User: What shape does this take?
Amino acid sequence: MPNHLSRERSPYLLQHAENPVDWYPWGAEAFERAHREDKPVFLSIGYSTCHWCHVMAQESFENEAVAAVLNRDFIAVKVDREERPDVDAVYMEVCTALNGSGGWPLTILMTPEQKPFFAGTYLPRESRSRQLGLLPLLRAVAEKWQHDRASLLKTGEQITALLREERAPGKAAPDEELVRLAAAQLADSYDKEYGGFGTAPKFPSPHQLLFLLRYARLSGDRAARAMAEHTLRQMYRGGIFDHIGGGFARYSTDREWLTPHFEKTLYDNALLALCYTEAWQEGRLPLHRQVAEATLDYCLRELRAESGGFYSGQDADSEGEEGKYYLFTPDELRTVLGADDGRHLAECYDITAEGNFHGKSIPNLLLNQRWNLLPEGYADLRERLRLYRAARCPLGTDRKLLTGWNGLMLLALARAAWAFEDRRYLLRARELAAFLLKEAGAAEPETLRAVCYEDGAAPLPAQLEDYAFTALGFLELYRADFDPAHIAAAIGLAKELPAHFADGSGAYYQTSDRAQALLKRPQALFDGALPSGNSAAALLFDRLFRLTGDNVWQERRSALLAFLAARAERWPAGISFGLLGLLSSVWPTRELVCVAEEVPAALRTVSGTYAPELTLLLKRPGDAALAALCPFTAGMAQRDGKPTFYLCQNGSCGLPFTADELPG
Assistant: This one.
């Protein structure tokens, strides 16, 4: 019999709607019942493409014995962490504080007042070795709730007090020293052999790679650029990149990037496509463009909805087996491609009889030294193999359309459109922008929604990252087609941050002042799998100041960066995406305004160069829209009816010149 999740729209929650556990979604109904029946709350947070979430569901939440204990002694609440990142942020902070790390599924036990007294991640059904089992835990807590509740309540109060405790800021300033320290910290944790940072499990961390690429360009630090480029090459060679269908898995379980956690998420692929595009702009290495295009094309083919938006991700499991969709044997290749072609492809991509994952093989190029290019002559064979695996077994897709993640996809598509001069990406970017304006509500920023489904928007208000990522996407689209309406859309979204998210000290909460109250109003300062909303806001304010010349954006950027610098004094590498907004304060920037009816060839040439310090604007004669948004361009006009350029630096603009006078 369906539980209370059957009324929900989240694919993850609906996966649990037929569980024997009497699940509730997060909301007043669940906590009112917990109060009424005087029971503790069992909170489980996960997402639909998560392998270990599936494992715990199969072991425990589909088990009648576990369900009996949960239904008798607890009120069980399920949360999709992608749909409710605010709830996840609060209780993940608890888990990290108590255990030193976190992850999904996230398991929380708490009072009806939402005060947690236990936090963990995946738990097997029964205890094994030194790992606590879920059933023994539930029975022990139920017993304690009846006979020693005071100790649980005391723990809940202590954890809540710790959670709400204000951390004293440091004394670090947002300056060049902070930027260089961040680069040095990344160098200290850099894996010189395989690229990336730290040890297994190893995450792509594209925001750190973007920081290194832009920092290297501005500072001249060749070692920083080499770290980023080596990491991009090694990730491509490993199994974390899908060599058959394009796109990247969420992370690698090993140091070598060979064995991924097979789920794919929209945000990783959007940010990685942006990284590879930016790396191509800097060095023009064909590999970088090929991987960027393969990643974007995967998203367009597998994740794009009819509305123009993009779904949130694809599953790690197929038919109950982790990675089954992506694994091959030499016999399969020979059957699908023929003896000779199958053998050649197997040799190229390390597909062996022994296998590298549970007796089968993850295609990779780690043993193939020709890693500077995609292997030539295999495109048709890869496509045939892609079609074969699509028909061989299904791959689940989470069909939520998350506003913030779509904002990142807009950023990636728009960058590829102007960097590669590819009209196909521009058209898709415009369609995505239209989706964000109409379906997600960006046309009226105060009503922006966090989540949409194919049959409409969900009634969940947008959070900080939704506003910041979406606004950044619109600013990148302006660079692709120079339509000032995109700047206007970004400004409208950005104005919501000080109006409804400000904390009074220069930074911003994750949720608006109109959102549902939680145990704590979450505030993400450090970048994680995604850049934090505050990091994104710092970059957004920087971009708006450079485009419009409006000092209010400079003031907001400065206040936010001062706040972040003081909190990240010991680990500025943890705000690497936010530091992108600081680079323009440390190194000189320039603004180039072109006055012309259409985009002249000279402007396209300049646009194609890698120059993160350069902001480009196009002002069409007679069009007052840009001048209204960017008042410093108001008096700029054409000279002799020719496309005319104005180069501005340090708050002042030089004399106009035409294309034949364009400086280098």
Remarks:
- The chain has a mean pLDDT of 95.
- The chain is about 45% helix and 10% strand.
- Residues 266-283 form the longest helix (18 residues).
- The CA atoms of residues 404 and 641 lie 42 Å apart.
